[in-house]
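Example 3.2
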Amino acid sequence: MTDLPSSRANKPVTGSTVALVSVGGRTRRKLNWSGWWFVGPFMAVFTLVFVAPLIYAIYLSLFRETLVGGNSFVGLANYATAMVDPKFWEAMLRVATFLLVQVPIMLGLAMFAALALDSARLRWVPFYRLSIFLPYAVPGVVAVMIWGYMYGSQFGLVADINRFFGLDLPSPLAENLIMVSIGNIVTWEFVGYNMLIFFSALKAVPMELYEAAEIDGAGPFRTIFSIKLPSIRGAIVIATIFSVIGSFQLFNEPSILQTIAPNSITTYFTPNLYAFNLSFAGSQFNYAAAIAIISGVITMVVAYLVQLGGEKKEDKA
């Protein structure tokens, strides 16, 4: 092998780095692919479970099943139909309303819990932290079934309260309360998850900032709004993005509650539920794929706007 310049000789060759090899007086380029042994398994799984299904969904959305001719190419016709589909936009408006109401409440409760645990005024912090996080460990389907049983006006907790006290409480599964009931379930499930994100970020705040605030005479609330919240802005943005994505992907809760409240939850209650019913109940796989693609694009745009807003606030700070 020929002698390489010192700057290159001291540099490790990784991944697909090009190495110069002298063979028979001629210099040849040899690629070192050892780095791909580390990223290859991830790339293979990522391609299999994400890229390939996405490409196939886009492919399906460009076709339509017809009585004559079978599955024929229609281009963007399915997307054009979805853009004027009142059921799809009603479902999208419903999850957007859910997002604007439920997410701030859930993140507010998670932030309150994280600040309380970080305040050093509570005893048995590990116990409270585990207790708040525990609902997230309950499988989503099981959580919905538990709450669905308690919501029942003919059985469960609400029915028992009505019978014991002689009351006539409105059913949480009624059409005008079903969104509140679903929001309560989702909040119960994910407050602990977001609390853990905020609490971990608070633990990473340098103690020097707290000491400086104490010297300046800052009180607890001043410390929260001037030090703690600005210091964990990145964690707040991440939790908000996750919550936005989760809101647009709302499926488990309405899908399971639909069996006990069919009059309150329609087949197009959320975009995901609409696409699911189109596929497996209506056999409209092509149109369902178009609905799923549009929903994904809308979710991506909203999540990006949230991230962009968080970055702008961080730059101003």
